[in-house]
Amino acid sequence: MTLVAGVDSSTQSCKVVIRDAETGALVREGRAPHPDGTEVDPAHWWAALRSAIEQAGGLGDVAALSVAAQQHGMVCLGEDGRVVRPALLWNDTRSARAAADLIAELAGPGKTGEEAWADAVGSVPVASFTVTKLRWLAEHEPESASRTGSVCLPHDWLTWMLAGRPETITTDRGDASGTGYWSPATGTYRIDLLKLAMGATPAVPRVLGPTEQAGILAQAGQAGTSGAVRLAPGTGDNMAAALGVGMRPGDVVVSIGTSGTAFAVAETPSSDPSGAVAGFADATGRFLPLVCTLNAARVLEAAARMLGVTQDQLGDLALQAPPGAGGLVLVPYLEGERTPNLPDASGSLHGLRLATATPAHLARAAVEGMLCGLADALDALGLDPARVLLIGGGARSEAVRRIAPSVFGRPVLVPRPGEYVADGAARQAAWLLSGGPEPPRWDGGDAALFEADPTTGLRDRYKEFTSHQ
User: Fold this and answer.
1) In this prediction, what percent of the chain has a pLDDT beyond 90?
2) Other Cβ atoms within 10 Å of 322 Cβ, number
3) Looking at the whole model, is its pTM more than 0.85?
C-alpha cells in the first residue's frame, strides 16, 4: 500500500491525514491547535505541523505529502530567510484603507479602479488580499518593509520549511491567485502591481503546475521518516477543499468554516469589477470563482457562548423555533464583513419582541443569519448549479443541514464528513505520484440529501437590515 499525507494548516489548527494513494482510505490522522489572533508568528504553524505529524504516526511509510493552508496570509522574509514580522492573516482587516487606496490608484481614463484590477488579476482587492497587506506594511512599518527580501503565503512557507529551506520558494497557481499580484488569465505575476503596493519588488515564489514537484522532504528533524518523501505543490484551502470533495464543473460548494465561501469549478477565468466574486485559479489547471464571507461557523460559536450552551444544544434549540424565528433577524457581521465589503460593520439583532425573546428564537436567528450571508454569496456567483454541496465544520450541525435548503431555496447535498482540505491535499500528493492528466478518483461515499420549502420573507427581511450597514 502506497501512502500519502495531506496537511490543512488553517486559521485555527493544523490537521494531517495519511491516506492510501490508490483508494483514498484513511489510515491515520493527527492535529494540533494554532494560536488565536489575526497575526501569527509562522513558527507556531511549524510547531503545530510537526506536532500533528507526530500525532499521525510520522511519515516513515509515506511517499508524498502536500500542504494546503489558509489563503492570503502575508509572510515576509528577510534576505537571510528569517521571518521579518508576524504574518498578517486573511481575516485581519487593518488594510481596508490600503485596499481602497490601491483601487483608486489604478483608475484611468474610461476605466474605474475596480475594472482595472478585475482586468489585471481577476479580482478587486479587499483587506484580505496579500497586496493590500503589503501596502499597509509599507505605510505603517516601513522598517519591516525595507527588510523584506521575499514575500510568500502560509502554504508556500510551510512547504519551503519541509523541503529544508531551499534557495527557491514555490507556490501553486491556486494560492498565487489570491495575492492580488498574479493573474489567473495569463498565468503570470503582475510585478507592477506588487511595486505599486509596496514601493519595492521583493522576490516571489515560483508558480508550479498541478503535478510539479516542490522538492523532497528534508530528513533533519523529521522523526520517523525514512526514504524520500516527495512534496507536491500544495495550494490554498478552498482549492484543496474542491479537490477533497471531488468537485466537478457544474457544482457549487458552500463551505462553512472560520470563513464562509461559495465557489465553483470553471473552465474559463472570471473577472468581476463589482468585487463580489474573486476570480481565483484552482489546483487542477482550471479556475475557481469564489465569494467569501468573514462570518460563518464562529457566528454559531458566538451564539452558543451567549446562550451558555454547546454547539449541539444550539442546534437543538434552533430546530425548536419556527422557520424565520418569528421575525427575529441576526445580521452576523461580528468581525466586519468581506462580502459585502464592510470591514467596519458589526453584528445586530432586529425584531426582538417578548414572543421572540427566547433561547430557541435566538439560536434559530443565528443559524438563519449565517446562512443568509452564505446565500448572498451563492447568489453573487450568478450560476444555476447542477449540485450544491455543503461542507465545512459548520455543516456538521444537524440544524444547519436542515435549515440550509429553506434559506438557499434549493436542495443541498452534504458529503460524508471529512477533513476536506487535508483530504484534497492528500489527493494532490497522490496525483503527484500518479502523474496522470487528472487527480486519482477516490470514493467519497454517498452524500446525504436535504430538502425543505423556502422560508417565506426571510431573505427579504435579512436584506432590509443589511442594507442599513
Assistant:
1) 88
2) 12
3) yes
